[in-house]
Amino acid sequence: MANLLMYFASLTPATVSNTNNNIPQMTKTALTAIPSKATTTAAATTSNNHKWQIAQDLTLISTPSKHRHYIAKDYTTFSDEFYTSQAQKMGDMMCTLLKVGEDPLEGLMLVDAVQRIGIDYHFQNEIDAILEREYVNFTNSSSRERNYQDLFHVSLSFRLLRQQGYYVPADVFDNFTGKEGKIKQKYGKDTRALMGLYEASQLSIEGEDALEEAGNFSSQLLNAMMRTSLNCNDARVVNNTLKHPYHKSLAKFTAKNFIRDYNGASANKKALQELAKMDFDMSQSVHINELVEISRWWKDLGLAKELKLARDQPLKWYTWPMAALSDPRLSKQRIELTKPISLIYIIDDIFDLYGTLDELALFAQAVNRWDFAATEQLPDYMKICFKALYDTTNEIGYNVCKEYGWNPVDSLQKAWASLFDAFLVEAKWFASGCVPKADEYLKNGIVSSGIHVVLVHLFFLLGEGTNKESANIVNANTDIISSVALILRLWDDLGSAKDENQDGHDGSYITCYMEEHQGSSVDVARQEVIKKIMEAWRRLNKECLLPNPFSRTFTKASLNLARMVPLMYSYDENQDLPDLEEHIKSMLAL
After folding, report:
1. How far is CA 77 from CA 278, 279, 326, in A?
2. Before 35, cis peptide (omega within 30)?
């Protein structure tokens, strides 16, 4: 692994910081405080304490070597015995899933375990069969009255079925709750049932206030039990559940804790541990080889050399596709998706740190026209960036066409044009000193988050738009995209507001809200942000229910992007991202 670090160090030039707030953000443009471009540039040049640096994010673990020409080894080599053993263990687990499927609760618990450790893609047919059978039983009122009298069983069934896309009404919990969503007294000390109900409440949709209240009340009871009656191990399990509910967490991020605390049959636990370890080793090998390819692409692109003030963080950018597309078989899609994500960050820095307003307007115009002739009046660095964007987009379109028979370049270009237009709106606010209305800021911020660009690319990389009619699906059904984008934008604003201590030098929803609601405190504004994040999750949950026009892979990737957001924007008091760092170290065994 040390050799791998040496190799990455040779591929990535030194990073220079973004100066808005010393925090890397996906798409952030200040809306107040109008320093001159020279002042901004000088500040950027002298600030070298960027808290996430790629040339140095690897040095968090190991000091880069002076050996600059290391060739990475082939990390994909596994023995025949490894593959034979894996096939045998997978076959055994398939048989176990088929067998336990005859016992509804035991089958659901094993499905939950397989999903929580991130190996469910191996057993999707078996899981589909178990959950389809469960849906038939669970939605039959007489069967439910007869077989579903246990709160944990009902909570687990509800959650797994909704995760699968089945709509199950929230009134299945009416037998277990009283007025105002409070749990009936006989369930008030059942730790497992309360955790199950809390987990189930994370999949609520708009209009299910009673389920929300039940989830909140179960959280209160669990917190009280941690303080008064639980032993250390049980308290740790409860705390992990409250901090990282499955539906809003990345399975790979929480898998280690789950396996440690798994209370199922000992034989199943051993089999799950062995399969998880094998899957982790293979996934790690795939991710390392992808990083090598991405780092080569990024170095060859040359933007890091040309834009010294811009971020230089291919590892961090790659963590988005690594999280979104957890199936190791989607290697090509992860590599290709990292490219537009990288460009979003770089273009955001150009709008924040480099261009004058006139230059940025011309830059946006060139992207809208998608024409090199429109770049004649641009400075050289913008011409170079436009060429990188143009070539990368056309290359992705060509590769998609070669694979699936449809070139989506027109859709990709329109997505980029929308992003540039949104960046330009923010730049104009910044230049004029205007603080927009909170709703106006959010409407534009959903676009400037970059999520639309990312998911449009992903849609076509997965082969979901193979003709003009199907290509329009991703533009006609934007609620799933806007929900993820809103979660990102608001989490971003929460993080930057906390880091900036509301000194008025960083634009965010909180700034706009407080300007619009004179006399409101920061805490009130932050609570409004948290409320809107919860509302966005409820909309996203609804959009993921069947029927919807997207594949399971696209829907899961959208959810995973939303799950990744807290890792990207949860800064500690030192402006570090400890959860993100932990996730990367865990995934790559650094």
Report:
1. 13, 14, 20
2. no
Is residue 45 very low, low, confident or very high in pLDDT (cuts 50, 70, 90)? very low
- Bridge-partner residues for 177, per DSSP? 183
Of 428, 445, 507, whose CA–CA distance to 33 is shortest? 507
Contact yes or no for 237/196 (Cβ under 8 A): no
Residue 102: predicted pLDDT: 72
The sign of the CA dihedral 118, 122, 123, 124 is positive
- Could you report the per-residue pLDDT of 504-517, keeping only the tens digit for each? 334 689 999 999 99
**Residue 486 is encoded by which pair of tokens?**
């809103």
Please name the residues in contact with 232: beta carbons below 8 A apart, sequence gap of 6 or more: none
Q: Is 341 helix (H, G, I), strand (E, B) or coil?
A: helix
DSSP H stretches of helix in 101-231: 104-116, 124-138, 141-147, 151-163, 191-201, 209-228
What integer is the mean pLDDT of 260-264? 81
Q: Of the candidates 582, 395, 492, 561, which has an alpha carbon nearest to the alpha carbon of residue 28?
A: 492
- The predicted-structure confidence for 126-140, as pLDDT tens digits, reads as follows 999 999 999 998 888
pTM over 0.70: yes
* Two tokens, residue 566: 């807290």
The label of the residue with tokens 């790559």 reads 588
Check if the beta carbon of residue 52 is closer than 8 Å to that of residue 575: no
**Looking at this protein, which amino acid is placed at residue 188?**
G
